[in-house]
Amino acid sequence: MRALIAGNWKMNGTSASARALAEAVAGKLKGAVGPLPEVALCPPGPLVPIVGWVIRDGAVALGAQDCHPKEKGAHTGDTSAWLLKDVGCKYVIVGHSERRADHGETDALVQSKAAAAQSAGLIPIVCVGETEAERDRGETAAIIKRQVEGSLPPGATAENTVIAYEPVWAIGTGRTPTVPEIAEVHRQIRALFEQRHGGGSLRILYGGSVKGSNAAQVLAAEGVNGALVGGASLDAVDFWKIIEGCPVG
Ligand code: 13P
Fold this sequence. Notes:
Elements: E1 4-8, H1 15-31, E2 38-42, H2 48-54, E3 61-64, H3 81-86, E4 91-94, H4 97-102, H5 107-120, E5 123-128, H6 132-136, H7 140-151, E6 162-165, H8 179-197, E7 203-207, H9 215-219, E8 226-229, H10 236-245
Parallel strand pairs: 1-2, 1-8, 2-3, 3-4, 4-5, 5-6, 6-7, 7-8
The protein binds 1,3-dihydroxyacetonephosphate.
1,3-dihydroxyacetonephosphate (13P) binds near residues 172, 208 and 210.
């Protein structure tokens, strides 16, 4: 399977900086030789079409950071998966821990968003991950099981779904789990997925303080098929180091 490096820009950027960053990433990809992972950019909502225009030749995939479970209607401030598809998205992140924390998103809501994304023809990047307190209490496996089972729609397949393991305590902190710890959770996620949804080439990304300096090590962990990158995806040079450091798979 082809690995995926997705940049989650979160609530950062302007129309000008987004254009420049997308141009820089697309330009590096155009000039690259040899096999590389798939690259996706997930800007904040209003910047999605702007980035989409810059990367319109298709070498870089477009993604969004959230969607509503419904196709359309009276949901002020929300964006449907169908609209994201219409403006050129391939991916949408759902269930990011920042949305679970900031907006009280439950596994059931995340599941309905993932199902909407799949119905609209998007690939949801479904995020799961334990907090530091949960890891300290030895609850990581239980939390991952609850989130994976609760957040994936029955119709999830290895082809229409990506899962991102993002330990909450590793996001934006500069700390990461050890390589064996990452491999262990990825193994658990894959086993849970296969029990309910069958086998295939499911991509499971790691996210949390991935940078150019640690990408090669973290992304070589067994069962890791790419990364969901926050802060480092805002810097074209560091983001590119992650792309180059990722085993293609
Ligand atoms: P950082 O790479 O900034 O730690 O963020 C990770 C993340 O939350 C990606 O979705």
